[in-house]
Amino acid sequence: MYDIYGIGNAIVDVDITVADDFLQSQELPKGQMTLVDSQQINSLVEMLGDRPMNRKSGGSAANTIFAATGFGLTTGYACRLGDDVNGNYFFNEMSEANIQTSAIDTQSNESSGQCLVMITDDAQRTMCTDLGISSNVTMSEVDQDGLSRAKVLYIEGYLSSSPVSSASAIKCHEIAREKGIQTAITLSDVAMVSFFRDSMTSIIGNGVDTLFCNAEEALSWAQTDRLDIAINELKDIAPELYITLGSDGAQVVTSNGSTNIPGISVKAIDTNGAGDIYAGACLAARRQGANPQDAARFANHAAAHLIQLFGARLASVQAYADLKTSYNG
Known about the structure:
Number of helices: 13
CATH class: Alpha Beta
Shape: globular
Structural class: alpha/beta
Largest sheet: 9 strands, mixed
Helix content: 25-40%
Strand content: 15-25%
CATH superfamily: Ribokinase
Distance between the termini: 29 Å
Number of strands: 14
C-alpha cells in the first residue's frame, strides 16, 4: 500500500552553469521552463561546449516522490520511459530507492525525457525540457490497483501540457475521488498556468485536498498582483494551500486562516527542485501526523538545505533520512 502515489513526467536533468548573456542570446526567459524538441536541446548542448555537466534523474513530481520516500513514506510513481540510456538511468535510480516505477516501454523508439538546467550566478534556474516519450503518460503506465489503495494521489501540473497525460491525470483523480483517497497537485510552473490553464482546470476538476504553488504561479492563476486576492481564489480549489515565497518562507492557508511560516536565511547556489522537495517534505510530515504549519516549517528546512547544493535532489535516499533526523523544529 502506497502512502503516496504520484503521476508525472520522467526527466533526466543535466545541470550546467551559464551567464545571463547566454540566456539573453538564446531568448530564454530566465527562471522559467521552456518546452523544446530534441533538435533544439541538442543544439543548446553543442553551443555550451565542454562545460561540466551533472546528470540526475528528475521531473517535478518524481523529485517530490523521491523526497517523500527519503523522509519515510512508501511510494509509487507513474511515468513513461523509453528504452535508452536516460530511461534506464531513471528507472534504476528510482528502483534502487524502493520506489515502484512504471516499466520501460520497449516497444517505442521515442527518446526518454531530458531537461537542460542552466544555472546563473544568482541561483536562478532556467530550464529547457524535451519531454520525449514522457509527454504521453497513458493509463497503461498507472498501477491502478496500487493507486486504488494509496493514501494520497500526487499530480504534477506539468502534465497539463499534454492532452494524453492530462487525460490520464483526470482519470487518476477520478479513481482517487471514488476511493476516498486524498488528492494533491502542484501548479508546477507559471508557464503551465499561463498557457495550459484549461487543461489544468480539467485536471483539478471539482477541487483537490492540497495545492502547492509559488507566489508567481498563484498571482498568475488569479490574474492579480495581490497575494490575498490570489489566496481567496485558490481556496476554492483546495482547503489546504502551501504558497512558497522564496526567502520569505511560505504562506499556509487552511480553514483556520492564513499563516506565514518564515524562511531560513541561507546562501542559495541552485534553486532547482526547491518547490519539489518542499512538497515532498510537507506531504511526508502531514502523513506522519504534523499539522500544516509544522509541516511547512519542516518543508522550509528541507528546501533551504537543498538550495545550498547543486541539483534538484539530495545525493541519496539516506541523505533525506539524515536531513529529517537533523531537524530540530
